[in-house]
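ok here's the first one, seq then struct tokens
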Amino acid sequence: MSRPSLNDLTAFVVVATHRSFRRAADELGVAPSTLSHTMRALEARMGMRLLNRTTRSVSPTEAGFQLLARLQPALASLDEALESVAAFRGGVAGVVRINAPRVAAALIVRDVLPLLSQRHPDVIVDLVVEGALIDIVAGGFDAGVRLVESIPRDMIAVPLTRPLRFLCVASPAYLDRAGVPTTPDDLGAHRCIGHRLPSGRLYRWEFERDGQAMTVETAGSIILDDEDLMVEAAVKGLGVAYVAEPAAAAALAVGQVREVLAPWLPATEAAAVYYPGHRAAPLALRAFLEVVREVSKLG
């Protein structure tokens, strides 16, 4: 049996990890049909089936799983070896793919990217804004952003923000018209701007006081899945919005909205950039994280 090429083995790892020729082809920059032909040629060269294929899915065979388990650390070690000498070329370069919710993405654009661009102009940040909690490895991302409490234990976390407050805000005109709620129970008499989560369910507003936690199911005439739009709706007098403080900061600063129910808001949470702990971070990602650490200390 002739030895398969490194490119063919790398392609197999990507297909087996994504379990999709289309997503693997997108990552590798080739056509799905080309990738399928490459996998069949690899199987013929090795004399065994590595992938089970149906019209809807692809998954490794038992032999494929065993090969994948051996190849992943080997390719990670190879990447680490290449990264160890990358500095000798005289500068940091490469693409960093980041998955982040909109509020965190705005902080990255505002605080991290200007300094990163100044220090490492050849580093490209591919920032995908998405509210859903995804598997960043399966999605082909180098890193993601989440609240610290929701980051998987096998990931390495680098703080991006100080603890974030969540606020209830409404426009002065709305509060003059509808009254100021003083307890979460008062929200039953108010129009509340609903928050549709990526899972499809409506977010139940969380409150806490004197160690007692409570949640409130809200009702109103509008439901949104974007915090910036929720703040804009509050500015227009459509009701009360429950959002992270950075989303409402600009509107609060100029008096377009006012905070309500402040004593009832729960303890704050911090957001962090996280990345897989089982493989070496590429040089471009390390440069990005270095700036994140510096910015978070300044903030």
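and now the second one, same deal
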Amino acid sequence: MFDIGVNLTSSQFAKDHADVVARAHLAGVNGMLLTGTNIHESQQALLLAQQYQGCWSTAGVHPHDASHWQDETADTIRELAGASEVVAIGECGLDFNRNFSTPAEQERAFTAQLALAADLMMPVFLHCREAHERFITLLDPWLDKLPGVVLHCFTGTENEVRECLARGIFIGVTGWVCDERRGLELRELLPVIPAHQLLLETDAPYLLPRDLKPKPASRRNEPCYLPHILEKVAEWRGEDPAWLAQVTDDNARRLFRLA
């Protein structure tokens, strides 16, 4: 199994990185992509990926941090991307839900990172929340220049997922789908996503699956819970979990060009 979204740089993991990775491996998670959300976090994600077997990382600036984007930011990301462990540019995109950075700042940083990824011929790890129309408008001119695209932690509508799928975009599904309140719409969309475009992730330490039994003492999510997400997604898609585990693992390794 491959977890394409692990925020191992989070302060929630500061005291037990090694234990978290070890529990993931014991659970059968043999691949993890550590998310970089700004320059500092991207640097830290790379250091962790270099430290732990079966880990790779991204380098980029999340829309929340887009206000800090400067011309030299791209140079730093380019330098990070030179490491073999860095396999995607991002997390980048648009988030008009919170607007911690202005829409204009977000669009500038997003477009700059798409251009950088195209220049480096690297896949992109994308974020979109309540910004689909503008997101697609900015992304479209770059699609034929990028080797791969994943929209991580998808929580949009059927129309939105279909527009992404038609463009060859991979869809990342998290434990959000296990939420009996907020995740029902996503659960209904699972059959719409072709297996060859599906990726699974925990987005740990966030989005702990609400239906875990027994319920963990801590609300902190971990990559060791990816098998639970996999089993539920397979159940709702009517597929064999072992088969889906192999397919999604293959998808991740193909997208991020891993051996």
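notes on #2: The two ends are 14 Å apart (CA to CA). The chain has a mean pLDDT of 96.
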